[in-house]
Amino acid sequence: MTATPNAGMQVWHFSEMAYHPAWEHLSDTYRVLVPNRLFDPKLGADLYHRYLDEWALCDELGLNIMTNEHHATVTCADSVCTIPMAILARETKKVRLLALGMPIGNRNDPIRIAEEYSMIDVISRGRLEMGFVKGVPFEISPANTNPADLTERFWEAHDLILKAMTSHDGPFSWEGQHYQYRSVNVWPRPYQEPHPPVWTPVGSEGSAREAASRGITIGVLNTGWVRTPAIFDAYRKSAREAGREPRRDKLAYMALIGIGDTREEGWRRADQILDYSRTSGVVAPQFMNPPGYIPAAANAQMLKAGGAGQARATRIQTKDGRPLNARTMGVEEAIDAGLVFAGTPDDVWAQLKAFYDHVGGFGHLLMMGQGGHISHEDTVSNLTMFSREVLPRLAALG
Amino acid sequence: MERIELGGIAVDTFIAGSGPPLLFLHGGDYVAQNTPFYDRLARQFRVIAPRMPGFGATPRPGWFRTVGDIAYLCLDLMERLDLNDALLVGSSFGGWVALETAIRSQARLGRLVLIDSLGVKFGGREERDITDIHVLPAEEVLRRSFTDPAGMAPDYGALDDNALLAIARDREATALYGWKPYMHNPALVHWLHRITIPALVLWGEQDGIVTPAYGERLAAALPHARFKRIAGAAHYPQIEHPDAVAAAIEGFAQEARP
User: Fold this and answer.
1) Chain A residues with CB inside 8 Å of B137's CB?
2) What is the reported pLDDT for A6?
């Protein structure tokens, strides 16, 4: 890898704003089919305010903020990623705001997305990082969008949003395959020039190459020790081929982080946060792989293997290649798999440094510092300890 | 299998037998399971069964996106093969295509047979006329499709890569054309009056995807249609009972014109 200038690693606190009080009623599926009578709005209001308070605290701690969205699920009650962002755009003053992000191929109106993102960018005085996501397969049913041409819609929406944000001379028209507008004229224009940085989550080498060719920053989630190096390598190689310097700040890795005064305390926090991984993939199989969501050739191979479409199962593995059961895995094996960094500040730093070196470096750590049943007090302590004890060491990563 | 070039698309087409022309339009899945039915029909008809664009090994260009596009392709196909007085037969998704074809032109059509067809919306906005197979567990979809599922689902592990790819493409294409509105064209019910040729509406008595009551409404909405149940069959009667369905079609083809 070429030595590249690095401004130090940026850290982003990510929470899915889970509605965990409903989990005890569920076992077979946490998504799509769960009736919302299990959501108590009074409890929900308390949780929303609590999660927002934790994000607002990040402004003092020097941790950036990351939101995302999912639909019809108890694992993530953040169904509109720009709503907490809009609140935090005013409530915070310093840190950057990453929405990773907006399912642009599942929402029907790219211009509305350009407007929402532009407003947040202006209100935050240019602190927005703009995530465009394809969305996991079980988002197809809640969005009622066609799985067979999702990729086409994603890229057309991407192109249209960027054109809308960078056109400043009055209306233009767009007559595309999926979107038609006679008069696109987005107000306000974004604060950042030419537009807020674009991010996308990536889970394979193919999609890493695609993002690299367009200069998009990638966030790699749940790929761990075994799968991440090839994805980052593919990105770096394709960036070079496209004539771009493969900067570390184009690469982000998500980890669940539990930190404490003692190893036991750190592990206890990580164990609670790990309930995110234990619940978020639990969904009825018919929603796991809608037709056309993955290429036909990949579906043909799955038919051959006898699977009804478990595209996302058994993706997590330990360093020696042993697949982990996402529903039952413990902290120790999740640390081994590179999904979790946990323990004392020294433990977390050592695990992070080893992972960083193993994958060839990256410029952003997406830190899931809240998840599952971890309390507000523990979350505040978790974020604060990370900020005080680990953040200062990250400048040494070079 | 022949490849017939239509509008720049090489359409994989099975052609067998001799006699009056019969154009068969397949459903969204289990296409290969129609072979015994083709063989039986080929004793009396010249059977022409195209794999529609996006299905099987037939390519689909990016612009080709709607059931209406498939309908025009079917009209092109009949013109290319110079079919006259053709018997048009459509099963499930193919029934929808057959209806869309017939409302556009009956110039080359003599009769229409629909087998557990999709495509038409009769009920209100909160009634589901057509079962959403994409929200049900796979075993339940199978149970609703065949009276004896165990004997009907292919042994996927034993199929070669081309056969598996064809199945994956069938399912993807069905989603592409039929996802929203779900497996129907809201306007189609208002154009059914254009189908003035004699029609036979065949329905599996135990169809759990579209009920026989739906089939009866469809037959009643067509100017010259008769409804007939097929016993011991669900959504794909021609796969479960190829002889009985073929016999019904042969009888219908020989009836005097009304």
Assistant:
1) 284-286
2) 40
Residue A333: inside a domain? yes
B156 touches chain A (CB under 8 A): yes
Interface membership of B134 toward A (CB under 8 Å): yes
**For position A3, what pLDDT does the model report?**
33
The whole domain housing A274 covers 10-290+315-396
ipTM: 0.94
Backbone angles phi, psi at A316, to 5 degrees: -95, 130
Residue A326 has pLDDT above 50, yes or no: yes
Query: Which one is predicted more confidently, A398 or A158?
Result: A158
Do A306 and B156 count as a contact with CB atoms less than 8 A apart?
yes
Q: Which of B134, B176, B180 sits opposite A286 (nearest CB)?
A: B134
Per the domain annotation, does A303 fall within a domain? no
Task: State the total domains in chain A.
Answer: 1
Answer whether residue A1 is part of any domain.
Answer: no
* CATH code for the domain in which residue A172 is found: 3.20.20.30
CA distances, B16 to each of A142, A210, B108 (Å): 44, 45, 19
Query: Domains of chain B (ranges plus CATH)?
Result: 2-254 (3.40.50.1820)
DSSP state, residue B64: -
Residue A211 · residue A341 · CB < 8 Å: no
The confidence band for A313, taking pLDDT boundaries of 50, 70 and 90, is very low
CB contact at 8 A, A271 and A376: no
Instruction: Determine the average pLDDT of the residues in B180-189.
Output: 98
Is A370 domain-assigned?
yes
